[in-house]
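haha ok so turns out i had the wrong file open the whole time. this is the CORRECT one, sorry everyone. sequence first:
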Amino acid sequence: MKKILLSMACLMAVLALSAQSTAKKFVLNLTADGESNLTCYLPQNPSGRAVVDCPGGGYSHLALNHEGYDWAEYFNKQGIAFFVLKYRMPHGRHTVPMEDACKAMRTVRDSASVWNINREDVGIMGFSAGGHLASSVSTLAEYDARPNFSILFYPVISMKPKKGHGGSSYNLLGEEGVKDEKLVDHYSTEKQVRRHLTPRAIILLANDDGAVPPVTNGVAYYSRMRQVGNECSMCIYPTGGHGFGFRSTWAYHDQMLSDLTRWLDSFKAPRKDAIRVACIGNSITDGFGIDMATQKGYPAILQNKLGDGYEVKNYGLSARTLLCKGDVPYLKEMGWRDALAFQPNIVVIKLGTNDSKTHNWVHKAEFGKNLQTMVDSLKALPSKPKIYLCSPIPAFKPSWTINDSVIVNGEIPVIKKVAKKNKCGFIDLHSKYTFADLCNATEPFGLISECIEHDRLGVKSGAGFYDYSDGRDVEVIRRRDHMFNKLAQCLFEEE
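then structure:
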């Protein structure tokens, strides 16, 4: 009798705790037939953060309890709105799960004001095949459906035979799809990670997972994220196999919850009223040659300088051209679509360096038209951004056929003309005096002359945009970042 009473007391305590942390629970259909739906758990004390959960099951069924509903209390206690996605099984129709997951993400963001959610703080979580779905949305979805962060438990990442999980691949892609190399590569999400555009992630798995090989899946995703400089963390537990989910009997359950909580606490969403800044450009903006450019490139430094009143995003893409007939046109990239969807208040554009290459400049007649197209698209945005057009920096050596004469005589006059016509700001990054001044030279031309003479600045090489062969890479990076940091600081003080 005492055991019964004790059990009842414990149950009542759990129910009371749940009632305190969860203010509202309801089910929302995502398809007319109800095959896909969201079970919504809104917290009593919302923090503004939300997580959409994708349970696993090899794309054949869903483990809705220990990889779904059982997590609600954990998140709601932290003020995080929690949504369990029941997505449709693909049966070889590989787009179906993505359609449901993207609709779930958009539904949460569309209802953000009603559910006390910050649209810029919506994450996705997935387990096993659900982890593959979560990573697919993180890498392949358009901006409005892509999460702000990802939580991946023992995820299926690769669709390749003997690397991923055969059942998940077969169920998602179908009998013919698993033979289609392009389709397999497309859904092998470690291959789809994009610098600056793929959201930060944490990966949690067990070393002894015998169902989904950690090295070719979770570790592969982490490696690619780290390689491109995106923020990513990984927790590997000694034992646990596959599918531990929220099971409290697992030896490392409490440690896993602690690790996840610490990671969630390690970053904050931008303020809802933050001024949005889009940095558009090529390798200089992207941070090519800088390890962890997402944290050390000039847009990241600018973010740190400006504080939480601004949200600065890096839309730089190395090697891209302004010219639509160039070898790698910026206007055809996901980064450009993301920049527009971001609805920036301020835009800084620095393109043109790669357009000066011999094989690209044959299309010089289109340079002004393509720049105008970019400006027109930005001006048409509801956010009505202030636009700054930058001249390319000097090309000190003709590396990769980049031509400084073309930049000076062909591009800069056109950029100035477009800036004047559209009342955009124009920033001269080419002038030696301006360049040296922004580099904080004590004497006009002093620092810039030293750099030119010793090949320490502006030299394209296989090691990166700058020549690191003299061992001065740290100093070169410091000078480059200081230049852009000071430049950007001047821009925003002007505002």
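The chain has 18 helices and 13 strands.
again sry for the mixup
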